[in-house]
Design a protein that fits this description.
The strands form 15 sheets. This protein has a 5-stranded mixed β-sheet. Strands 8-9-10-11 form a 4-stranded antiparallel β-sheet, with no helix packed on it. A 4-stranded antiparallel β-sheet has the order 12-13-14-15, with no helix packed on it. The radius of gyration is 30 Å and the shape is elongated. The protein contains 5 helices and 52 strands. It is mostly beta strands.
């Protein structure tokens, strides 16, 4: 199954419409032809693995559900995870105490039983790209004191229940995993290793070592894979440089650069491993800006930025590999030296651990570090972190709508192109009308709804941020919600749809006890769109079926429905958009609001209190019911350049191609600029 990337992190709830439009993947025609914006997808889930110092040796965080899922799974008290690596479906942990090595399946997170005893405390480890070899650096020398590095080959290492195999598939369907030490790799390291790094193609291998005052040379070994044997090529030139103890290295393969982080000034070296000499282009940038020991480095996936973690403030530098300039990151983020860093899939998140028991998580989707406030930080020193893709899960993917407009009688909110709110109308706070609401927090949003409190004393505004969280002043929404993909309101009735296909409602928002119970037991999965009416909630399932919370008003079981692609609710009527682009309406038809039987080629339908409005495939507006007088009615149905429609209880909002909103109320016509 192919991996689906959502703006960087696998599992993020939206795609950025503008980026897709520019790339040609998602056009304006796609937008207006698919008004639901929502579809079902299968993705591999993203996890963050944190290796710690104390009894909670390993902590796992689910980045999709945004919660801690397990701690201390190793059952090895007082052990420390010194290093983590992941390739394919292998996740390996190095420990300082027996059994020294743990290997897990990333899809099932089941542990594999080793068929050979690992001889000692692990300082560093690294898997080759296909997980066919595991290189381990030990604190103590091995093989009769001849080397600190052992290499393990992949053969038959099963899980504890002997049901799952991982690694390279064999002829009979078996899978293989590291077991035996191999001697033909030709890796002999006589010094205590600090790091092991490969190029992406495994052609080059670099091992850094500890040094001493007496021995500042020969602390880095560079190998090239020649016919399956790693040959030491350091002797040609690299050993002549006075590098000191090597803390970390990083390959930049497109330019054949090897960045070397050292404990000795100038702390960061750049070596061309093909030409076999130091690269001078970075000298001024590095020497003038980085004034601290380099502890670790991290390269972005596009190979344009190098993150450099240091020993003293400012602790973090970012080297732009295009402009050859470094910038320091705000010292407010870190209080001590940075000891490890890792990126999530597609660089959406970066996790940075510090020596002072700090673990910082940042959103890096916009190429700017934005702190993420999640309650996932361990109260212990973290030595290593690693993101990995886990098992495939089903979720609802929502395209970020180009427009979102909501009204409630005399108040209207619209999401502007800068993903902030445009407000028009009256706003009430404790019964007092104020000139304008405080909307500073409503940023980076893709949908916003405005509605009144139960006593009509307060105006509530609830918005969905692009990360699936909510910004709201509704006092009834007490808990924190993640992964929300849609809001639907009717007066003070509000419902939320999450990415798992479940609906959330609130006791104090005019839902009866019976309705809340029905929603909590029937609207719990497989839902991709909701619509809240005066006394009904409709839901559209992933298989184009309709659920109703008020069977006396509308019971889908007794109506023979075709495949439905959108639902909408009014005061006492509903409208359903069929797959053949017709509209079926049910309920109170006192004002003709259900007279939609002659509409054809419809791509979106919206219900108000006593009216129904639709937009056709050729952008013609249809309207039935009792909303406004004949003159205004004629203006609406003859409007041109309409590309989207929205309806409030009594208002009609038409999105024009010039990025304006034409608002028709029973008494006035307004224009809102987005």
């Amino acid at each position: 199954m192919s991996k689906i990337s959502k703006g960087g992190l696998v599992g993020l709830l939206y795609n950025d419409f503008n980026q897709r439009q520019k790339s040609g993947v998602w056009s304006l025609e796609d937008h207006v032809a698919n008004q639901n914006y929502i579809r079902t997808s299968l993705i591999p889930n993203n996890y963050l693995s944190v290796g710690c110092y104390n009894i909670n040796s390993l902590i796992l965080y689910d980045m999709f559900f945004k919660n801690k899922i397990t701690t201390n799974i190793f059952n090895t008290p007082e052990s420390t995870i010194t290093c983590i690596d992941q390739k394919r479906n292998l996740l390996v942990y190095g420990l300082n105490k027996a059994p020294y090595l743990k290997i897990y399946n990333t899809e099932t997170f089941t542990e594999y039983t080793l068929t050979q005893t690992i001889p000692g405390s692990i300082q560093c480890l690294k898997l080759t790209k296909n997980a066919d070899y595991l290189f381990i650096g030990f604190l103590e020398s091995q093989n009769n004191n001849t080397t600190h590095i052992l290499v393990y080959n992949i053969i038959q290492l099963t899980t504890s229940n002997n049901e799952t195999y991982i690694g390279t598939q064999g002829a009979q369907g078996e899978y293989y995993i590291p077991q035996n030490i191999v001697s033909d790799i030709n890796i002999i390291v006589n010094f205590l290793p600090t790091c092991i790094k490969f190029t992406k193609d495994d052609e080059h291998l670099c091992i850094g070592h500890y040094g001493s005052v007496e021995d500042e040379f020969n602390n880095l070994t560079l190998y090239k894979n020649i016919d399956g044997v790693y040959t030491d090529i350091s002797e040609y030139n690299l050993n002549s440089y006075q590098l000191g103890t090597i803390n970390d290295v990083c390959f930049l393969e497109d330019k054949k650069y090897l960045f070397i982080g050292s404990q000795q000034y100038p702390y960061l070296f750049c070596y061309n491993y093909e030409r076999q000499d130091l690269v001078n282009i970075f000298d001024t940038t590095i020497i003038n800006n980085i004034n601290s020991v380099v502890n670790c480095m991290l390269l972005t996936k596009d190979s344009k930025k190098l993150f450099i973690g240091c020993n003293i403030s400012p602790y973090l530098y970012i080297l732009d590999l295009v402009t050859n300039k470094t910038t320091s990151v705000s010292g407010d983020y870190f209080n001590d030296s940075i000891i490890s860093m890792s990126f999530s899939y597609n660089d959406q998140y970066v996790c940075i651990s510090t020596k002072d028991k700090g673990l910082k998580l940042f959103d890096y989707a916009t190429k700017i570090l934005i702190p993420v406030d999640l309650d996932i930080l361990p109260e212990t020193t973290t030595f290593s972190t690693c993101f990995f893709l886990g098992s495939t899960i089903e979720y609802i993917e929502i395209e970020k709508p180009l427009y979102s407009v909501s009204s409630n009688n005399d108040a209207i909110v619209a999401v502007a192109s800068d993903e902030e709110i445009v407000f028009n109308g009256s706003y009430f706070l404790d019964g007092i009308s104020v000139s304008s609401p405080d909307l500073a927090a409503h940023q980076n949003i893709f949908q916003s709804e405005i509605y009144y409190s139960l006593d009509y004393q307060n105006t509530y505004i609830t918005s969905i941020k692009k990360d699936g969280t909510l910004i709201t002043n509704d006092i009834n929404i007490l808990q924190t919600y993640n992964n929300i993909v849609q809001i639907s309101t009717y007066n003070n009735r509000i419902a939320l749809l999450d990415s798992y296909g479940s609906v959330h409602t609130f006791q104090n928002n005019s839902f009866s006890t019976e309705e809340l119970y029905y929603l909590s037991t029937n609207f719990i999965k497989n839902i991709k769109q909701i619509s809240v009416g005066n006394n009904i909630v409709l839901a559209l399932t992933n298989d184009f079926q309709v659920l109703s919370s008020n069977l006396s008003l509308f019971d889908p079981e007794i109506v023979s429905l075709p495949s439905i692609i959108q639902v909408s609710t009014g005061d006492a009527h509903i409208s359903l958009l069929t797959e053949s682009n017709t509209v079926l309406s049910y309920g109170d038809n006192t004002h003709g609001q259900c007279n939609t039987q002659d509409w054809t080629d419809v791509k979106k339908v919206c219900c108000g209190n006593l009216f129904t409005i639709a937009l056709s495939l050729n952008n013609q507006v249809y309207l039935v019911g009792n909303n406004i007088d004949q003159i205004i009615y004629d203006l609406i149905i003859t409007e041109e350049d309409v590309i989207d429609i929205f309806a409030g209880p009594i208002d009609i909002m038409l999105i024009k191609s010039d990025n304006t909103v034409k608002i028709y109320t029973p008494t006035a016509i307004k224009t809102l600029i987005l």
